[in-house]
Design goal:
There is one protein chain. This protein starts with a strand and ends with a strand. The chain contains two helices and six strands. 19% of the residues lie in helices and 31% in strands. The strands form two sheets. It has a four-stranded antiparallel β-sheet, covered by helices on one side. A two-stranded antiparallel sheet has the order 3-4. The protein is an alpha+beta fold and 80 residues long. The longest helix is centred in the C-terminal third of the chain and has 10 residues.
């Protein structure tokens, strides 16, 4: 299993921890241009979509298992 999926969008680094993801798709519903479920029903960042920083953070906060880590300019902003 992959340790994590990571993608940079602007100042945000988005990291999805597959071992924590339960495939609830809350992130996909909140920011569908940024998150998708792969063939194993695990969230991962899309390759080219974008959204506002606020909406990306809301998507991470919607994750019931805190499987999404957000860093801004190298500083972790979620989870706090």
């Amino acid at each position: 299993m992959i340790d994590s999926y990571t993608r940079q969008i602007g100042d945000l680094e988005i990291q999805v921890l597959p071992g924590q993801c339960i495939g609830s798709s809350a992130c996909v519903h909140t920011a569908p241009d940024v998150f998708q479920l792969n063939d194993q029903n695990i969230s991962e960042p899309t390759s080219d979509g974008s959204d506002s920083e606020e909406n990306i953070l809301l998507a991470a906060q919607a994750c019931p298992t805190a499987a999404i880590v957000i860093r801004k300019k190298g500083k972790q902003v979620w989870p706090e």
